[in-house]
Specification:
Layout lengths: L2 E3 L5 E9 L2 E8 L6 H19 L9 H11 L7 H15 L7 H11 L4 H22 L25 H11 L3 H12 L3 H6 L1 E5 L2 E6 L8 E4 L5 H6 L7 H14 L9 H12 L4 H8 L4 H4 L3 H12 L9 H7 L1
Antiparallel strand pairs: 1-2, 2-3, 4-5, 5-6
Helix pairs in contact: 2-3, 2-5, 3-5, 4-5, 6-7, 6-10, 7-10, 7-11, 11-12
């Protein structure tokens, strides 16, 4: 039996056979948490695949389960949310077990039909499965095409419409006292950047002034934003701040509660920056550029703010003394 227990406690697959006069070997340490039944199932599938290759059969199409095992073993351990990933993929295992990578879209559709959890939870679980298959396709060469090209995730309406005013934000910052977290939060507010972007940004002096620069953002593109005069002294004197985003989030949340704004969160500073810009007549395209949106769809969540400005403008049509000549005559 090629499945044994490794000294680490995980299941270990070993294949060593002479087939048609040629020796075929393969070894694989299965991810922690793999059950005995899953290990035996992997043994059957992998042994059949190796025999097929050794006897000259066509290269079999990779299975989703194989992609998941590779992902859990070689990539997920490096991620902070690895426990969430493992839990989600375990829940989905009955749906993708034995299915080919090309059937990923069908697997997702079948799960969405029967699940009773909220759409946001469904979307997260399927997104983890999609990430595993795409990683295996890109990094391990499993499959000839993107397995997720036909995959459809549920639509989730999770746009927030809560924004701190500048006055509220300043009160929250004062509550935090002098700290690295306060500096990071202030920069987040005056740039509209995610806190992860803020903490990884580096100052850059240009002929146009001081900028914060990220060589590789969430959207895989470089990102720059001018440094507001209110935070210029922070960026020039002590940057980057020696703090983690988890600490910033915790301390901002405590200050928000102290100000009676417990329903708000750190990420709302990003929305607040967008609100400040739009309410001061900055167009949505420019707002999207500042925030680092790759698609106009992301910026569209702030369209209701722009619509409010448009309504105010339209209300001026026909208003008394709205025309310069009328004002002169009235004088």
């Amino acid at each position: 039996m090629p499945i044994t227990r490794h000294h680490s406690g995980a299941w270990y697959y070993q294949f060593d056979r002479v087939i048609n006069g040629r020796r075929t070997r393969a070894n694989r340490l299965l991810p922690e948490g793999t059950t005995r039944a899953q290990a035996l199932d992997f043994d059957r599938r992998e042994t059949a695949r190796l025999f097929q290759l050794a006897t000259g059969g066509d290269k079999p199409e990779p299975l989703i389960a194989d992609a998941v095992l590779e992902y859990l073993q070689h990539h997920a351990p490096n991620l902070k949310n690895r426990d969430d990933i493992e839990a989600a993929l375990e829940i989905l295992e009955p749906f993708y077990n034995g299915r080919k990578m090309s059937e990923l879209a069908e697997v997702a559709a079948e799960y969405m039909k029967v699940t009773t959890v909220k759409p946001a939870t469904t979307k997260n679980r399927l997104a983890y499965l999609r990430a595993a298959c795409r990683w295996a396709w890109k990094k391990k060469g499993m499959g000839e095409h993107d397995p997720a090209e036909r995959m459809i995730l549920p639509t989730v309406k999770n746009a927030r419409h809560f924004y701190l005013t500048r006055e509220q934000a300043l009160r929250v910052f004062r509550r935090m006292g002098l700290s690295w977290s306060r500096d990071a939060a202030r920069v987040a507010f005056y740039t509209g950047w995610r806190i992860s972007m803020v903490l990884s940004a580096v100052p850059m002096e240009t002929h146009s002034g001081l900028f914060l620069y990220i060589p590789d953002s969430k959207n895989d593109d470089p990102q720059m934003v001018p440094v507001h005069q209110k935070i210029e002294h922070i960026v020039r004197r002590h940057w980057p701040p020696q703090v983690t985003k988890w600490t910033v989030s915790k301390e901002v949340k405590a200050a928000l509660r102290a100000e009676g704004l417990g329903h708000a969160r750190l990420h709302d500073l990003r929305h607040s920056a967008a609100s400040e810009m739009i309410n001061n007549d900055v167009d949505l395209y420019t707002v999207g550029k500042v925030l680092g949106h790759k698609s106009a769809v992301s910026t569209a969540r702030y369209a209701h703010l722009a619509a409010g400005k448009l309504a105010a403008a339209v209300a001026q049509i026909g208003a008394r003394n709205s025309h310069p000549d009328q004002k002169k005559r009235a004088a």
